[in-house]
């Protein structure tokens, strides 16, 4: 559980830490769009270099990014198995126990895995360099133009902020329950498959009960303090974009345009 880093803010004084949260959110959106453009190996290498520069710019270690990717390894392995058994197009690359593995299955899995890894890297850079409160304010400001058509910008931003805030809390609560169950003789690592399922249930049920209790306590506390999401609220900290923030957003748009150009030049149909 200590390896789970998603949603955790890492205090620092890097260039990304000092940027406006709205600029980082917009840059994240443009980079995610560029990931889903089928630009082939050249496009993904280009995006990978940009993200690697972002990691160094945020003064984060590569091992920290790998920790964020660990929870997705099982999903990637599952995607590989599904594609191997479902996709039957292209040339046969090799055989495993007389079962043919096709070229398209391997390459399609490779592209999906690369996209997932890039998305995890981008979101990790955002959450690790942006305080939850600043992230909430940034999301609310970006959604504020949609208030005219009835979009509850403040409520959405508050929900995202609370979710990000309680990720570390849930991790700590899970560790506490695991230690309590281990002291009672519950083994979560060894035993048969049935015993592991039973041990997992003994962890999940108390965690759900604790989560609902925390949610109820938070709702009661907000109600006792007179919180009303429909009322107009004032701020102590006002966000203000600087020249570097505009330049950062422009650079992310430029990356998107270059990825589109790579797609058109190298992979035009």
Task: Please name the defining characteristics of this protein.
269 residues; mainly alpha; 10 helices
Description:
With 269 residues, this protein is mostly helical. It has a domain at 154-228. It contains 10 helices and 2 strands; from the N terminus they run αααααββααααα. Strand 1 and strand 2 (99-102) form a beta hairpin. Helix 2 runs antiparallel to helix 6 (103-129), helix 2 packs parallel to helix 10 and helix 3 runs parallel beside helix 6. 19% of the residues are buried. The model has no long low-confidence stretch (mean pLDDT 80).
Instruction: Give the overall shape, derived from the CA principal axes.
Output: flat
Mean pLDDT: 80
Order of SSEs: HHHHHEEHHHHH
Structural class: mainly alpha
Count of DSSP helices? 10
Residue runs with pLDDT of under 50 for 5 or more positions:
none
Helix content: 55-70%
Strand order of the largest sheet: 1-2
Percent strand equals under 5%
Rg over CA atoms, rounded to whole Å, is: 22 Å
Number of strands: 2
Q: State the distance separating the first and last CA atoms.
A: 46 Å
The main β sheet shows up as: 2 strands, antiparallel
In short:
By secondary structure, this protein is mostly helical. The protein has helices spanning about 15-20, 20-35, 40-55, 60-70, 75-85, 105-130, 130-145, 155-185, 195-225, 245-265, and strands at about 90-95, 100.
Helix-strand blueprint:
Elements: H1 15-18, H2 21-35, H3 40-57, H4 62-69, H5 73-86, E1 92-96, E2 99-102, H6 103-129, H7 132-143, H8 153-183, H9 193-224, H10 243-267
Helix pairs in contact: 2-6, 2-7, 2-10, 3-6, 3-10, 5-6, 7-8, 8-9
